[in-house]
Amino acid sequence: MSFKNSSKKRRSRITDTNHDLQDIGEFGLISKIRNWMAASHPEVIRSIGDDVAVINMGKKAILLTTDILIEDIHFARSWIDPYHLGRKSLAVNL
Fold this sequence. Notes:
alpha+beta
């Protein structure tokens, strides 16, 4: 699977600015990104979602995941220092 040329083909932006992130929430943002990326490669077994994407890499598959930590929802600077916030970020993403 090669993404070298895909960046040249897909230079469009998500231009719907009618909604603030706090209005649509995490799942609304995921839905907008999913719709924006609707045309996927045939190697994509399971596309974008809340948990993981699955990509066919020949005889094996690769799992891709990411998650965000939002201040005052998942942490507060008043009770977590940068070191422990980094550890928490790694814990939810690895």
